[in-house]
Amino acid sequence: MTELQNDIFLRALLKQPVDRTPIWMMRQAGRYLPEYRKVRAQAGNFMGLCTNPELACEVTLQPLERFRFDAAILFSDILTIPDAMGLGLYFAEGEGPKFERPVNSAADIDKLNVPDPVSDLSYVVDAVSLIRKNLNGRVPLIGFSGSPWTLATYMVEGGSSKSFQKVKAMMFDQPALMHKMLDVLAQSVAAYLNAQIEAGAQAVMIFDTWGGSLSTEDYQEFSLNYARQIRSLLKTESEGRQVPVIFFTKGGGQWLESMVDVGFDALGLDWQTDIANARQRVGDKVALQGNMDPVTLYASPDVIRMKVKSILEKYGAGSGHVFNLGHGILPDIDPHHVEAMVEAVHEFSPQYHV
Amino acid sequence: MTELQNDIFLRALLKQPVDRTPIWMMRQAGRYLPEYRKVRAQAGNFMGLCTNPELACEVTLQPLERFRFDAAILFSDILTIPDAMGLGLYFAEGEGPKFERPVNSAADIDKLNVPDPVSDLSYVVDAVSLIRKNLNGRVPLIGFSGSPWTLATYMVEGGSSKSFQKVKAMMFDQPALMHKMLDVLAQSVAAYLNAQIEAGAQAVMIFDTWGGSLSTEDYQEFSLNYARQIRSLLKTESEGRQVPVIFFTKGGGQWLESMVDVGFDALGLDWQTDIANARQRVGDKVALQGNMDPVTLYASPDVIRMKVKSILEKYGAGSGHVFNLGHGILPDIDPHHVEAMVEAVHEFSPQYHV
Q1: For the packed helices B301-315 and B275-282, what is the interaxial angle rounded to 10 degrees?
Q2: How near does any CA of chain A get to the CA of B295, in Å?
Q3: pLDDT tens, B258-285?
Q4: Is B90 among the residues known to form the active site?
Q5: Which residues of B are less than 8 Å from A253 in CB distance?
């Protein structure tokens, strides 16, 4: 493999010295880019894009052509695992992800098996290899997966949900069944992320998008426990280098201390959480990734620059900060506003690394 | 006015001794009750129900006939103030609240005036008087309003919103304009709540439903600041008795300390926040109201009882806890499950008040 030309993202995740704060952006390969929309149209639909390694590679690299980002992230969907389990993922136009065969019963859960990533999710593994090859050492590649709890919400609800009635009713009334399902999912996520690491992912991120819908005790029992199981099963090194793990529970700002205890290298922060306060609470134990309000990108470039400055200042001096939004970029943002954010991080962050 | 026969709700809000934990439920007068649906059908639509004091009174009292609740809450909508400001509130079937004339510009904001509750919102004031009369001292009556920030989100977005693009873009790009709007709203909410208190409300609650969409610093500046202004303008006593103020920011569990500093009597807790941890953090300064996950009510009555027990135990011994859900009841809950919750509070809470 080619030597990395820019490794500040990986170094910051491990709190090693860097000369400026690295930046990437959740959903950086996405609908706000006209060149993405073109490839997506060519692919026919979203899953057509995800399952075609050449096109997935192409859109993964697009934002790097425009912006001085310090990492690429695999273009894929968080629901590839349940799809490989046979649930039949599809996207109804304007409605988000759906499953043809949601999980409703003990019998459904009995049928769930850990997919073999190499055979059942070869399109992802192939995309990772291809992206890594085409990156040619420019910046590191991030692999990712949804968390077991987050995957379970879609699998039981049959799609997106507002109040998570079905999945929580199962959790409350049949906790043993829910644990069984989450255990299969944790094994599946670990195998999936390990396959991505073997194919070339240099860091991995677990998206616990819906962990924040749980009470504190249910979060510990049904979400964080399975993130812990994954952590213990993940490869810690690849190509002679540590593979950092980032864990992100949207809406989980109250629970950072318990996430730190699991032993992740970095935690994603949503924008509601104050990054100065978060740094005080987590101490030197983890790096922090985030956390500008994604809606800030609708504001004028001057305001964006000011907000970037403020977040950098709040984190303060020293390594351990990866700049990002607090959630994925919204689809109708002007790319010039993204540029304002990226350039502001390049301009204002070196002073915190002297 | 008749002497209150059951004042444990008011006493608990002031952390005075009680013999058991009081309970009421957000949206306790609502769609999960068949008798509510009947009156609502009779009224034609939701606003028809809100603006008819007799019908509003009838539905306010309905849940008290079924359940041993310790408070009644005025049946109304949080958007009555912007409607009285001339924005034209309406409810599109299945789509939630909308405004015919949203606030889009400095000119729109210039036109906003503080409504006179007695003339412009007489249907609310009349409903409060009528409910109070019909309660006849059974339990106290809670008045309420949306918070200025929460009202502003609907007024600028023109209805419900997922990402609050328009209102936040105004906040980021034109903060002075946003402050002007929030100041008018804070004055309006204070006048509105004071009118409810004069008409007979014995406690008031401010619903900051969307404060949790903000970053910590934006929350302080654009939401909590105006709750503070309201607090300072509210009548503190009526009929020789203190009128407790409850403040509830959904998604605001990280910010309890700063809410305490404002001087509210009680804070509402969403279900994500651990009530034992919250009590440690707020100390003896405020009472806490909450905080069972509303989805728990889909579970079996046995599970509901267990969860009630667990929350009571977490709060622990002493006054200062009002049992509630962490958000409004969902519309398709079985009323028998509500009964299981209420009865469990009656059964398990006396041991914490000996």
Answers
A1: 20
A2: 6
A3: 999 999 999 999 999 999 999 999 999 9
A4: no
A5: 254
